[in-house]
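Weekly structure sync, notes
Attendees: PL (lead), two postdocs, one rotation student
Agenda item 3: pending single-chain targets
PL asked that the sequence for the first pending target be pasted directly into the notes so everyone works from the same version. It is reproduced below exactly as submitted, 604 residues in total.
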Amino acid sequence: MDNKIPATEKSLQERASRASAKGDRRRAERLRREQRRLAYLRRRRRLRADDVTVVEESALRRAILGSVVGNIMEWYDVGVFAYVAVLVGQAFLPNATPVAQNLFSLGVFAVTFVARPLGGVILGQLGDRLGRKEVLAFTLMMMALATFGIGILPPASVLGVWAPILLICLKLVQGFSTGGEYAGATTFVTEYAPDKRRGFYAAMLDWGSYIGNALGAGFVSVLMLTLPGDFMATWGWRIPFLLALPMGTIALYLRARIEDTPAFRGARAETEDEEPADLAAVETEIMKPEEGPLGFKEMVRTYWRELGIAIVLVAGANTVGYTLTSYMPTYLTTTLGLDAEHGPLLTLPILILVAFLVPACGRLSDHVGRRPVLLSAAVSTIVLAVPVFLLLEHKEVWSILFGLGLLAYPTAAYVGNLAASLPAIFPTRCRYGGMGIAYNIAVALFGGTAAFILEALVASTGSPLAPAFWLMGTSAAALGAIFGLKETARRPLPGSMPAVASQEEVAELVETQEENPDLDVSEIFAIAPAHLVDTEPTVEEALAEVEVAQAWEDKARARLDRATRATTEALRALDEARKRESASPDSSGARSRPAPSESDPVPN
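Predicted structure, written out during the meeting:
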């Protein structure tokens, strides 16, 4: 794991190499000595009460509320667009065939996800440098303005070819902002949440996602049932998009009331230490902290394995999730032939069911672990995919509800754990950026294109069961990624100190740190920022250090005793051999020994 050594020690290594190359042996040795000292301190350091973060309940509530509202807005737009996709195609591509209009609408929906990786990379890097709070406020404003812009965009009858072009541009802006929204919100909540309840609190983000989707879908369904068809086709479908502006204003106010996460504030304090005043101070302070954010290339080079696991895992989860949220309204109307007003309504109770299963699955993972819950999601998707689409083929209300209901658990088990599992893969200094890259690449390739791919599979094969095999394939790949995922439930985030909900938990954690199966102190301090490690030892740490030294001394003495006994035995054997030789009849020289040749082996 040489590429995962802490940044300060890595910097010392590089400085020592440069000093050696310049012939400055004294400086190179001093740097290497400092590196060895830090490595020793990391092994010695024990957890103290002031290392543990106590999360204030009021601050946690504000952080969760401010993060959830952004997800509600994002998925409100997803729900609205999925339900008015047919009307959008008619408004912006009026002279095309119904099939072309549907594909255009689904393609425009997928275009949003083209910009998401770019937004994830740029906004993720900014979030690791400027702060989670500032970037999340920016993404929220962009999202609200772009969604509102869709509502006021004139149709093709007014703007001609510019109407669909501008629609695509607005969806690209939405995608760019959304690329930083989910990654930032999950990073924000997971860094705020206590370790033992991180799964539940992080799952609230995806609870907001499905509540937002249900709100959008429900509002559009009410409009379709109450407004005249002609008015709905021209202006009615725009009303849900116009509501994004007041919703965004409220969400922005809520986010303005929260502070940045304790983990980020601690990491930034490490990178903002003042520079030494003179050259002598520079020479003395050779351990200048360099724990800042990673660039894109360095992140990919250092964390390529973690990025790969996250991408495959998100691919499996989003294929199932987007099938239920964005594809099913189209599948029920175009493939199964249900009417556009009542068919999509059948997905609404399932969305509400998923919304309340998500936090339950997050809480479950806090008790049994993230991996078991994710494994159950992947396996249940593989087993249930074909039965789900067989039930949908019956076209009865009960069979459709039952079939969609079977997808509710794997969807909730997947998404209810992603928000807690993925940020825990990356350390604090590159968590936002790593999440932004991995999550948005996967969503762009498998989430936004899910509806388009599934519709194309049905059109090309003529089989309504074709989508089931796509779900099975992506979940089979996710199954392999889950086996490579490290268990993170109830454990501190990498690069961060433990977080608890009360002072009582602090005392218990410090007292039981050696026996706690969820707390690996050596692992925490192996990658902790240098300023947390380079401290004066406590009495307990000094005593522990003495015990370790005594244990090593005992082992060394035991080895020395064994070596001494072996030497004594060898000397005694040599003595006896000489006595036997001198006592033998031909010891006077009657038998001569040949002189050793160069080919004879040299004795040890």
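Discussion points:
- The chain has a mean pLDDT of 81.
- The domain at 50-264+291-483 is CATH 1.20.1250.20 (Growth Hormone; Chain: A;).
Action: rotation student to compare against the earlier draft before next sync.
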